[in-house]
Each structure stands twice: as C-alpha cells, then as structure tokens.
C-alpha cells in the first residue's frame, strides 16, 4: 500500500495538467500568443508555446500539499532528517520559481541569452547552498570523495549544462517532455525502492503533469487548436527539476537514500542522450569555428529527420535510445565497475553516431540521385 504515496500524486498531476492546458490554449489563441515561424522550425502553423506554464505551479503546489498531508496522516514512516532535506527542496522550489518567471518572460517578450545564462548560474548555486552537491564520483577516474571546493563548482556546471541540454533538445513534438517523463519515472521508481519518499513524490508529480502535455503536443496536431508547445517556461524548469533529482540520487548522503555503488552512473544515465547530444553539437560548432550558441540543425533529432524518419518515429527512436541507456546502466553497475560502464556508454554513443552518419549519408545520396533523375 505504500506505493499509493506516489501513485495518488501522479494521478492528480495528470488530472490537473489535463484541466489546465485547455485553458492555456484558450488564452493563447485569445491573445494571439504563438510560437514565431522561421526556417529552423519544424512546424509551419501558428502554435501556442505556453504549455510549460502548467508545469512548475502543479509541481510545486501539489508536492507541498502531498508532503503536508503525508506528515499529517502519517501514512508512511518517512524517517527523514528534515533539517537536511527540507532546505534542499525549499531552495530548489525558489530556483524553480525564478526559472519559471524568466522562461515566461522569454516566451512572451524575449530575454537575452546572457541574462538567462546568469539566472541559470544563480539558481544552480542554490543547490550547494542548500547542502546538495556532487560529493562522490564513486570510483570514476579512480576518484571517490570530492572536497567541497571541487564538488560545488562541478555541481553548478552540471546544473547549467543539464538545463541547456534539455532546453536545446526541445526540437520536435514530444521529445523533451518524453525524455523528462522517462527520466522522472526511472528515478521515481529508484527513489521509491530506497524509501526516499519526498524525492519519489516529486519525480512522479513531474512525470504526471507531463502526460497530458505530451498528448496535446504530439496528438494535438490532428485536432484543430489543440496543439501546444512548452516554450522556455517548460524546458528551463524541467531541466532544473531533472538536474535536482539526478544530483540528489548521485549524492552520497544517507539522509537522502542509502549508499549504492553505482548511484552516480545510474542517476545521470537519464541524461545521457541530451547531454551527449549538446556536447557533440558544441564540439562541431567549435571545430568549424561557428558561434557556440548559434542555433543550427545539427541535433540528434535533425539527423533522424534528414535520414527520412517522420517526426513521430524520430521522437520514439530517441526515447527508446534514452530508455536503453537507463536500463543498461541500471543492470551493468551491478556487475561491472563504474569506469567500464561509463566507457561503454561513450563507445555505444560514438558507435551509434558513426552508424547513423552512414545511414544519413546514404539517404542524402539517394535523394540527390532521385532529384538528378527527375531533372533529366
């Protein structure tokens, strides 16, 4: 019966998201708040981009309400050190509000990337200020304990990287929300297994509020005025949320959960696809002497689309790839060292990209030959 602690908030989050999003659609069409069209966008119809407005309020309010009820009813013996855990959630929710406001402003009137970057760094510093930081590499590179002067900057860098990776991968319908949903369900189950109920509740609430958005984002295209994007309001807060959950699971802190040898590898396996992808894109831009933050069409989903895949198939393929890494790392850390698992992840990713580059190149040649034949 303990599983009800996470199942009930999950179902309520789905219901709240299903209730709120149609109102966001109504206001967006009423006030003409649409995503601008340009050559980089995969859509050619006006579409609201304020779907992310539903995320942070539901996540924050429902989480706080769930925790208060849980304490009052005493359904599950939480057994947590409130002085250790509550500051983490309190400052995390403060950071969520800040990113929510910045994202909303960007979706409505646009905010310069410099200011968004400054805010991202600031909210990232809230993690170590609350006592949450990467303090152990669990043997990766033969390093275990990390002193604060190393772990704190590493944590801030990781949070900013994750936020931007999630933001940049939001390129086709269902991809960003699907990846975060998979990651939150994966981490939510693990937190539940370790009786880390507060983190599990938040993970399942986040996954729950994404379910109705995923439906409207992916299947709303077939219904008039039912399609919606999350915008920066959604992608920034979702990146921050998954960063919080991943670092919480990775931290060697018995007040969060019991020690597990492969915690850091398992925690960040949910982010392999977006983080590896944005790292590859930035490397390509640097190698070709292009501005690092200039938008292009070189992300993984663009490569899938150029190979002839439909948007739907590309999205499903990337979600399956992310799920593969999650399950592979979860089981691999039980039998082999963290270093070998990380090496396997890198080799599998590079191998996958090399194979896909061949597929993409062949498709390009086929299209060129077809065009040449048609022009004759």
From TrEMBL:
Transmembrane segments: 6-29, 50-73, 85-105, 117-134, 140-163, 175-194, 200-222, 234-251, 263-283, 314-334, 340-359
MF terms (GO), sorted A to Z: metal ion binding; phosphotransferase activity, for other substituted phosphate groups
Bilayer disposition of the protein: Multi-pass membrane protein
Cofactor: Mg(2+)
GO cellular component terms listed in the entry, alphabetical order: plasma membrane
One of the GO biological process terms: lipopolysaccharide biosynthetic process
Protein name: Glycosyltransferase
Protein source organism: Sphingobacterium deserti
